[in-house]
Amino acid sequence: MSELHVPYQHRLSLPPGSSVTIEGKPTKCFSMNPQLQVDLHTGNDENSDIAFHFRVYFGDCVVMNSRDCAGWGFPVKSCEMPFENGKPFKLVISVLQNEYQVKVNDQYCYSFPHRVDPQYVEMMQVWRDVSLTSVCVCERDG
Ligand code: GAL
């Protein structure tokens, strides 16, 4: 399957009820500490504020946060680690009224309450040590 260029940037809007599905694979084995980062930006460039920062330290933990002109907010860390060494993953970020919910391989794993109204999200960047086979934005649930 052809791969998407990484860093992958995509303009989008993500109102409550929408979701984004990212399919990919870590490019290194977990002993080399690969990472995945997904950032939902409120502007069209990577220096803009981040409404939702989702950073996977494969084999270790996940850190979620937001960033504005004052810098990073309070990090939310989870030791839930459903990603498997050498295996493809499917990540779904669903936008609910009050929070983002993240599923990995169809299993609910993480949530992050909205600090910034998700209506302000304009661009997503997916990057670090992953190859991507598909990214799909779904306007509504179902
Ligand atoms: C920092 C890291 C940032 C971001 C932030 C999240 O340590 O340098 O890239 O991940 O944590 O809290």
Q: Would you kindly provide a brief summary of this structure?
A:
By secondary structure, this protein is mainly β. The protein has strands at residues 8-11, 19-26, 35-41, 50-57, 61-68, 71-72, 76-78, 89-95, 99-104, 107-113, 123-128, 130-138.
Which percent band covers the strand fraction? over 45%
What does the average pLDDT come to?
96
Categorize the overall geometry: globular
Order of helices and strands: EEEEEEEEEEEE
Largest sheet: 7 strands, antiparallel
Terminal CA distance: 26 Å
How many separate domains make up the residues?
Answer: 1
Q: Oligomer, anyone?
A: single chain
Helix count equals 0
Low-confidence stretches: none
Overall CATH class: Mainly Beta
Question: What hetero molecules are in the model?
Answer: beta-D-galactopyranose
Helix content: under 10%
CATH topology: Jelly Rolls
Number of beta strands: 12
Backbone CA Rg: 14 Å
Which structural class do the helices and strands define?
A: mainly beta
Instruction: Give the CATH architecture.
Output: Sandwich
Structure description:
The structure is a single chain. The mean pLDDT is 96. This protein has strands at 8-11, 19-26, 35-41, 50-57, 61-68, 71-72, 76-78, 89-95, 99-104, 107-113, 123-128, 130-138. It has one domain: Jelly Rolls. The chain contains no helices and twelve strands. Strands 1, 3, 4, 5, 6, 7 and 11 form a seven-stranded antiparallel sheet that branches. A hairpin with a 3-residue loop joins strand 8 and strand 9. By secondary structure, it is an all-beta fold. Bound molecules: beta-D-galactopyranose (GAL). Beta-D-galactopyranose binds at residues 53, 55, 63, 65, 72, 75.
